[in-house]
Amino acid sequence: MRLNQCHNFQDFRELARRRLPGPIFNYIDGAADDEVTYRQNTASFDSCDLLPSVLQGVNAVDMSVTVMGQRLEMPIYCSPTALQRLFHHQGERAVAAAAEKFGTMFGVSSLGTVSLEELRQKHKNPQVYQFYFHKDRGLNKAMMQRAKDAGVEVMMLTVDSITGGNRERDLRTGFSIPFRLTLAGMLQFALKPQWGINYVTHEKFALPQLDEFVDMGGGASSIGGYFSEMLDPSMNWDDVAEMVQDWDGQFCLKGVMTAADARRAVEIGCTGIVLSNHGGRQLDGSRAPFDQLKEIVDAVGDEIDVIMDSGIQRGTHVLKALSLGAKAVGGGRFYLYPLAAAGQPGVERALGLMQSEIERGMKLMGVTALDQLSSENLRFR
Q: Is 83 left (phi over 0), alpha (psi -120 to 50) or beta?
């Protein structure tokens, strides 16, 4: 299979599976425990049907949205994800460039592999910084100030990852940073030598958001160790309220899943929330964001920008989420598989296909702008 033969999410996934060593593919592909939530995230979109309006004279459509003060030319953005240069040597550079080409937002993780300063200097499209809350409050302030100095537009605090999820695929292969592979994991790398050649012939792997503060070279500082030893499970609403004041700009909580927590986010001054279960990678058995969307939009949608991620694979999924009141949606795996398969051309193809699906869906729904969508366009079974 070649890139031009990829026409949907599953095609990109298959191409990435063929090209990546098993432990790395399973790091992207896997989720927590029995992966029930991972599957339900996408299946939840099947619980309702779209109701199109015909004969609406739809010649052209405008799929732009404004979310957290950022204008996006399409209503889906590239959510921040970790370790991208493990999947392809271009990593975040490919994602940022592709997102800029399509006029949408991209994110950089605290566990990102390209510095947020480099990306902010090279690209003009909006940039999100996904932040993890550390036990060291001085470290938190220093990392936030660094993002502000770099010109990052949106601070996104992840609140569903105070400890790492139980990702059993990674345990079986020994996937960690640095690598602590099992025999089975090492065999998988031997079967995909091209990945290893790519890895050693490009710049050394690094985590530039953390290099200044954390020694990631030791076994204790594996990714699992980072979550278990450095992140602060005692983080509370007072801590976040202080961060919102310190940032004094667009501030988003990622991982909100109840109307009560959404209300608290409004009260402490957040400008956005992302309904998310981390793609099923944290608490297995948790509810799918799409299934919670209407309840939360009804509660706070007039006061804060409500976004959702987890499970988005199709343009029709985006339209269903926007019909229930989401201002935009984020996706991770939808661009990570294409990144792993082909670098920047892969991400561009994925975004182009999504753009075409949204445009086609809008025309078939009989709408010329996304704000014409409403819950009247849906029927739940």
A: left
User: Among the residues of 107-167, which ranges form H helices?
Assistant: 116-122, 137-150
- Sorted by sequence, the CB contacts under 8 Å of residue 46 that are 6+ apart come out as none
Q: Which of 89, 134, 278, 317 is catalytic?
A: 278
207 vs 320, higher pLDDT: 320
**Mean pLDDT in residue range 258-273:** 98
Q: Are 319 and 51 in contact (CB under 8 A)?
A: no
**CA dihedral (162, 245, 113, 134) positive or negative:** negative
Report how far residue 243's alpha carbon sits from residue 133's, in angstroms, rounded to the nearest whole number. Answer: 10
Give the Cα separation of 13 and 8 in Å (integer): 9
Q: Do 113 and 83 form a contact (C-beta atoms < 8 A)?
A: yes
Whether the CB-CB separation of 92 and 82 falls below 8 Å is answered with no
To the query of whether residue 278 is one of the catalytic residues in this protein, the response is: yes
Geometric angle at alpha carbon 191, from 186 and 196, rounded to 5°:
75
Based on its alpha-carbon atoms, the radius of gyration of the chain, rounded to whole angstroms, reads 20
Give pTM, 2 decimals.
Answer: 0.93
Can you list the alpha helix ranges (DSSP code H) found in the chain? 9-19, 22-29, 36-43, 84-87, 92-101, 116-122, 137-150, 168-173, 183-190, 193-201, 223-225, 237-247, 259-267, 289-300, 315-323, 333-342, 344-365
pLDDT in tens, 99-139: 999 999 999 998 899 999 999 999 999 999 999 888 888 88
Pairing of strands 70-72, 65-67: antiparallel
d(CA 274, CA 192): 36
Read off the pLDDT of residues 50-82 as tens digits, 9 standing for 90 and up.
999 888 888 899 999 999 999 999 999 999 999
Task: With beta carbons less than 8 A apart as the criterion, state whether 156 and 131 touch.
Answer: yes
